[in-house]
Specification:
Chain B: It comes from Desulfosporosinus hippei DSM 8344. The complex is a heterodimer. By secondary structure, chain A is mostly helical. By secondary structure, chain B is an alpha/beta fold. Chain B folds into two domains: about 170 residues, Rossmann fold; about 70 residues, no CATH class. The chains are: A mainly alpha, B alpha/beta. Chains A and B meet through α7 and α8 of A and α3 of B.
């Protein structure tokens, strides 16, 4: 089965290599200068040469995203749980949830840095803000069970509210919870980079802005590559977790990356 | 003794017509302990409301539901209820699904597991214990749902059109099989169905319901001894019964 999976991916892998080759070929023949568009090989070289520096910045971003993401998950679990158990609180909080999503992040981030300084805290808060919404909404959707027949069956067996929650609502919510986590994981890296970009001493966002200001375009691309890789690692990790946590789902059709 | 309904009525508010609609009107019947009784009626006559009342999901406006001479109005957990859909939880294996009732009622796990394995064998599901519902056929899922109802451990079962969604062949097979299971266990069964043949084949007594608001139109005794051979459906006594039922139902 795993072998077959690899076989399925060979065409897209070959196509990717072909695109890289075209890029390499065209930039050389058109004599595009390094500071406008580096070739893939130059980017690889930049990656290798600045690997220690990159690794150091990556560690900062990794720390921010992991802490921010985990905190967002905890807050989402609490909020969604309360909102599902009490419709009154749900009506109270729901508008604020929507508003939190419509306020532009790029406007809040400088404020947070103004208030909290250049440390890790403002970045973690930014990440919590971007991750909280997709996770909470997907959880609420999953926890809100609409199948009256199923609820009646449990009621006929004399199930308590808590039993209905952990026997039916929670497992029912898991698939949608994991889709929320996947979205949030990629958002979290983006949030961290934006936060670092606006003011920080370390992190991939800092590496990115510094390289860009110095016209070290090959390093900008190296940063883009690292950021993409980081998001991809998170995504893969959560997909793997989902497969372990959801053994009844044979194959997730939306999950083409894995 | 057994299950007795006495003068049961229930109305709902209908927002479209802006008035109370009477669904059940002074419904009374009795099911003796260990007998198999079918409830048959025109569609939309209020059978699902009757189910909800007996299963304790809702309370009647007036009247009494007595189980072995104790009042169970609005009390759930006294009757094994099997709804129309199998409602197996997709994230639970068959074994975990059939043990659902035991888990909710906090019954002894070890005993329940032993019992479940014994029954899974009898239900021909032993080799599917660790399968998820989506890996099972419709007939198997329905048997799983029935097993969940039996393992709930109550002597009285309420089966609401359990085979309605199955194809004709699977349906006949599962009817025979239910009959053989029932002849071993002798649960008190209230079986709700649309299918006249099914009612004649399985039950000791058939209760015919009127149009909404539902009340008892007639009670018919099915005179064939249990256990039955499906061939009884071809006898002339059975055909007469069928004619009578059709006359009552289609007017």
């Amino acid at each position: 089965m795993i072998k077959k999976k690899w076989k399925d991916r060979i065409p897209s892998l070959l196509f990717f290599l072909f695109l890289l080759g075209m890029w390499q070929f065209l930039t050389i023949t058109a004599q595009i200068p390094l500071w406008i568009l580096p070739t893939p090989l130059q980017i690889a070289q930049a990656l290798w040469e600045t690997r220690q520096l990159l690794w150091m910045h990556t560690l900062t971003t990794l720390l921010e995203t992991t802490v921010g993401f985990l905190l967002a998950v905890i807050f989402s679990l609490i909020t969604a749980g309360i909102m599902v158990l009490s419709p009154w609180i749900k009506r109270l909080i729901y508008p604020f949830l929507i508003i939190s999503q419509t306020v532009p992040l790029i406007a809040i981030a400088p404020l947070l840095i103004l208030w909290l300084g250049y440390g890790l805290t403002p970045k973690i808060i930014i990440i919590i803000i971007v991750c909280f919404f997709p996770i909470t909404i997907s959880l609420i959707e999953g926890l809100e069970l609409t199948d009256r027949d199923l609820l009646n069956l449990l009621k006929s067996m004399g199930a308590t509210r808590w039993q209905v929650f952990y026997i039916v609502r929670w497992p029912h919510a898991l698939p949608s919870f994991f889709s929320g986590l996947k979205i949030a994981a990629t958002y979290s890296v983006m949030g961290a980079v934006i936060g670092e970009w606006l003011g920080s001493s370390s992190g991939l966002g800092v590496y990115l802005t510094r390289s860009s200001h110095s016209f070290l375009t090959d390093r900008v691309f190296a940063a883009i590559f690292t950021i993409t890789l980081l998001s991809f690692v998170y995504f893969t990790l959560i997909s793997a977790l989902a497969r372990i946590a959801l053994p009844w789902i044979a194959k997730d059709p939306d999950d083409n990356l894995n | 003794m057994g299950l007795t309904l006495q003068g049961l009525s229930k109305s709902y508010y209908n927002p479209h017509l802006d008035r109370q609609m009477k669904i059940i009107n002074s419904l009374s019947f009795e099911i003796e302990t260990g007998s198999f009784v079918s409830l048959i009626g025109p569609s939309g006559c209020g059978k699902s409301t009757i189910c909800n009342l007996i299963a304790g999901i809702e309370s009647p406006d007036c009247g009494e539901i007595m189980l072995d001479s104790s009042l169970i109005n609005g009390l759930s957990g006294n009757i094994g209820y099997m709804p129309q859909k199998d409602l197996l939880l997709p994230w639970r294996t068959l074994l975990e699904n059939v043990l659902l009732g035991c888990e909710i009622q906090h019954q002894d796990k070890h005993n329940a597991l032993e019992e479940a394995h014994k029954w899974l064998n009898q239900f021909g599901l032993a080799s599917f214990t660790n399968h998820y519902p989506h890996q099972l056929s419709g007939g198997m899922r329905q048997r799983g749902a029935l097993l969940r109802t039996i393992l709930f451990g109550k002597k009285t079962l309420l089966l609401d059109e359990p085979f309605g969604a199955l194809d004709a062949l699977t349906r006949q097979e599962i009817q025979r099989w239910l009959s053989s299971i029932w002849n071993q266990t002798r649960h008190t069964v209230l079986f709700i169905t649309h299918d006249i043949d099914e009612a004649i084949l399985l039950s000791d007594k058939i209760i015919v319901l009127s149009q909404q608001p539902a009340s008892v139109l007639q009670e018919l005794i099915v005179p064939f001894p249990q256990p039955r051979n499906p061939d009884v459906l071809l006898s002339s006594a059975s055909l007469d019964l069928k004619k009578e039922l059709l006359n009552l139902l289609i007017k």
